[in-house]
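Exercise: predict the fold of this chain.
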Amino acid sequence: MSMHNPDFPPKPRRDIFVAFLCGGLVAAMVGLSFAAVPFYSWFCRTTGYGGTTQVAKAAPAQVFDRIITVRFDSNVAAGLPWSFEPELRTIDVKLGEVITVYYKVINQAARITAGQAGYNVNPATTGIYFTKINCFCFTEQTMKPGETRDMAVVFYVDPKLADDSEQATTKLITLSYTFYPVKVPDQAAESTAPVKSGHI
């Protein structure tokens, strides 16, 4: 003979509460994971963490006499049939001086290909002072078979570097790019697709 124990609450109500609690926790964790990506990006841009460069719309107000040598490095990841080289390997710049350099890119494939560049600077601690005004790395690059393109980078080394005692001995900054393959946009792929002819 079964007896009802009044000391225990009905199980269904307790199970519903636990289910809602778990569901809310999962939703919160998913939300935080999506928020972490833009937060990390903002953090890197703000602090120069990991050699992340800065972005500006105009030149600084001052140019200092201190000279920094900037070295340009270029790499292409596996799976992208491109030639990618800077026009100059090194250049001497004054702090605050706006410089434009070009990279030559050649699509060596007989098909449309697309890529996007990742970048950083070394030493990583100089990332907060290396500022780009214009750069090809912010957009995907789609290239026709055999196409050659000159891609510009406009940058300056922030004069504030002179006030940083940790950068007192810095004489060389390396700007490094790596192009990675990305999916060719559908519109570009369709524009070169062969037209099928019908038979009467």
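Check your answer against the key: Residues 11-47 form the longest helix (37 residues).
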